[in-house]
Fold each of these.
Amino acid sequence: MMVMKTILKQIKNEWNSNLFLFVELLLVFVVLWYIVDWTLVTARVYHAPMGFDTEHCYNITVSKLGEDSPLYNPELTADDDMDDLLRLTDRLRHCPGVEAVAISQNCFPYNEGSNSIDLGIDSVAVNVRLLWVEADFFRVFRYAFTEEAEFAKVEAAFRNDEPVVSSNLTEGHPELGGSASLPGREVLLLNYGKDVRRR
């Protein structure tokens, strides 16, 4: 501490001749401040909750057997493959220790692929991320629902083949009103033609 006082006193006494040293120290301080700030912000963002939890979640990828496989059966159809997939998920649901099982296509968190679709809401085109999932997808990844009643609404929408949209759908489009105005509004699926509408 005493050494630091002596150094500061010497710098003060030789202010005119050490102006360059002061500017250099200021520059080093600013650069170090920026590096520390950037590191702390990056670490905070990295560890911030994302609204879902991937701990103890497992991705099972299934595919069709190739013709060179001894178990290949050319008589199996796409419907047979889907029946096998549904049977597999049903068996997994009944395994002890399994909380939830869901079928999805290219939709699990942190995957590099994405599906998107253009929605027409009151003549405004909005590009959104499209999730091909079952209702249990939200249970598998423990998406944050404030109440169980909200999840029940999502399940009911899936059963009725209704689109489920997130609350940030209208961000960047103030002309659509807030997200509270979305339930019950007609949505035009622009990628599928002008006649495909959902509520």
Amino acid sequence: MKANGKRVFSTAFKTWLVEQAGRPGVSVAALAMRHEINANQLRRSMRLDHLVPPARTPAVLPVVMAPQPCGSQLAIATPQPAQRSLPIEIEVAGALLRVHHGTEPEQLRMVLQALRA
């Protein structure tokens, strides 16, 4: 120990400690606590010995801008008929009304008015 209170470790001990910390599954913090040293100092030593990979930067992918299509080149999606339509059930005035695909709105309006009357 130095006069200023700092502890001095041998190079062999530091090398051994860094090797231990670099093993798979070893907790650097627990290892540092066990040997009464600062975990940040141990991690710094590991970085200096290239045992800790540098922090990964996010990958940047190249972006290619395609030319804007003019109005005549735009494809317009046309609605496709449903393969199988299920009826809608409406309960009005105690009656169950089943409305199938293709029912005329005017007919439905008349039936609903009659049921409410």
Amino acid sequence: MVFISATVLGYFAITFGYSAFCAVNALKKANISAPLASIISLAILRFLYLTDMVSGLQLQYQYLQQISAYSHFVSSTYSKRNKMLSLIKKLTHSTTVAGSQFALLLLANIIPKDKSLWVYGCLRGYSEGCAAIIEIAHKDGTHRNVWLYRSESERVALQQRGMSHYPLHSLRGYWYCLRANLAFIAYGFNDLNGTAIHGAKIINVWHGTPLKKIYFDSPQLLGSSIRKRVKRHLQSCFTRRIYIFPVSSEISRTRIESAFRLKPKVAVVVGEPRTDKVLLKANANHTEDLLINELLKLGPDRVLLYAPTWRAGSIQSDMQGFHDLVSLLEKHDKYVAFRAHPLDGNNPILKFNHRRVLLFPQNTYQDVNDYLWLFGALITDYSSIAIDFSLRSRSIYFFAPDIDSYHETQGLYESYDVFTDSSWHKDWHGLIQSIEKNWSNGVTQNNCSKKLLKRYHEFQDGQSALRTYELCKKLSNK
């Protein structure tokens, strides 16, 4: 029964994809008017949505869950059948996703676009450059701005700001993606409904200037295997739809053009919209958040932010070295806020209970640029947070005990010595000595921070989002 059901579902997905293809050709040959094409396309989309085929990779299928449960039930007795069921489950899922995505791709390229409609979304909620731009666009009121949200907290934030918003994976969410003229993303095409925005002009505001090689430059995507070739080709189908990619400097432009294989003049040096808030002088006096209240009370000069990059097979922290850092904090009456990556849940620092150590988790405080003004210095390794923090004109300390292996597996766009001005440390002892020297001498901004600021930020006026918005308005009218 399972085999028959899986076969029927797979056949249905392929058949529907082919039928949609034939329907598109028929619509084109018949010269159907734009409004009627929209109505027909919406009917197809609604059918997809109601049959749960439009969910793609984002949602779980109840049917597949039933197969999985049955597979688990027979695993102890029928191992061969279990393997077969597992294979059927994977094939069914892949076929269903392929069929639904193919249908969405067709719809995305035939549905007439609404020139006044801009859609926004972000994997980390209402944050990053997407939030910076929609706030300007909302005040201007020239276009219809719609944010597609994932969580209740995101919905509340949008409602408080009076912005138009709908659930990302709702029928309206897909419809607005298909109709949008401009689509704003910060982490990837799944910030919105992936394939559904293929027909839109994509504005990629990205989430940081990379030191680590990313996207097409990443070692994980390089190679001649069929799988990697197919993956590169599929990704290039979307990166070709990027029309504007704001960056902070010529160095950034070169890297981004290479990483995303962009057309000339797509990456533009106007500053990164997400960093405007780093330059703003915060005047918050009260908040319901206990940690933020504590940081406000302490003041930035007394708090050091430690934000290491996550990597697969993350290195274990040298706790003796961290103990020595805490001793230094006690000596100078300062504190450290530790920001671990959500996937680094086993880091022993998270279990280190000391009044000088404050936990600053990414899951709770997602957009770090909202909070950089609370810190007077930064410890990091390969993270783009260093480039953002340089706008604070405060000291940055680089701690990279695994530089050799990281460089080999991840790849860097420039040597670590160039990036850090040769001011980095491979062990806690050297790091602590450097911090203590600056604190004892009253140094608030070290040389490597000054050079990062000069090299990576051509604009330091807090108007990057506005410049990007003006470019988007011109593009929208074309």
Amino acid sequence: SASSVTSSVYRKAINAAYISSIFLKFIIENAKADNWQELCLDIDKDEKGLEIFPSDQSVEYFLMKGVLNYIGSVDVSPESCYLHHELLNLMLVLMSTQLCSGPSPEPKDVHPFIDAAMLQDSSIVASVVQKLLLNFVRRPQIPSNGSHPVFSDDGGPGVLQRVGSAAANFVLLPYYTFNYFVSASAEGTTSQLADNSLLVLLILIYYRKCISMNESIPTDGVYMSDSNTNVKDAPAFHENPYCKALNNAKDIQFDHADVEGNAQNGPVVSLSFASLFDALGTCLKDESSVLLLYSLVHGNCDFQEYVLVRTDLDTLLMPILEMLYNASRKTSNQIYMLLIILLILSQDSTFNASVHKLVLPSVPWYQERLMHQTSLGSLMVVVLIRTIKYNLSKLRVCTRFCFCCSGKLMHVLALSFLFARKTSDHTLFEVSFCMSNCLWFITV
């Protein structure tokens, strides 16, 4: 931990991470070749000072192992939060080589650092995924009375701080800005460490390494990207260990024996699903949190089952419905993601029964009319019909996510009429009015 190392080593680590981020960002942005020769990752290990460098490891593997091992093994504390912050920023820079590639992965793509991250031991992978999730849940804060300088060995001003040039001031500006907003803001839910942890996690779980033509395709651990194309022509990808770790995450509240039984096949990510559920409910207005919710609901069966048995489904559904209500401010991809989440959850009969039993005292963000004592299921119907109406009237095109919405809508409507006796009259009128308008636009 940070307390077990000397203050000088800790400062040097912060300096190294910060300076590395700056130079690597410049090199990646200005690279002229896609093989990243500018990174100078090939070194002579016989040079003086490199005798202790592992002979069986590449530079990028050695670097990623050190960074990931620290993130996964050291808890965030007031003493270690600055180094965590810099290492997460460094991770984002290291994995940004993907921005220089095309929209779809190809066998010729080279991403040395994130490829090295995929080769780490399963123990490191599980610890990193768990720690990034815990950072998102706990939302650690940078101490409001702390500073984030570029340290020097003697505790005085760093090299950049002693340089009285405009370049040095420009380089240090992000730190001053960050400290200003952190110290000036009151206690809230915003956390730079939590946001960066979530971004790093999403990048890791959604990275796909395409299998080249020279490699033999394994029988397991391969993900086929497109089911509509011929299997022989479909690109194949290596198994993503971080995605697998997230999909196999377990609730820490489960019987400990079950967790130990699953651990026989390797380390298992375990955390409180209750805390994760609450954290998602408070952060769903951020699209990265929506993507995390989609990843968990779609890939982790245990978390999906946990969500379905919760009695306070409005914690997750109300932010989703509010975003769908404000569809004009969202992109089609964002709306599509929200609808898929609802579609996945609605496949369970208990979910459909629960949303109609849960009565909302009011819906403050619904502007068309006052809605009091309305069931959550009725509100879903109104918002979904309103979403279709918006796309048909404003965009004048029925896109793919409209069909998804329509299927979900018909599914929920059938259940709504089963619960019609428990639904208030003004809500049924609202549903009927929206349906008539929607059908009118479809026929036009």
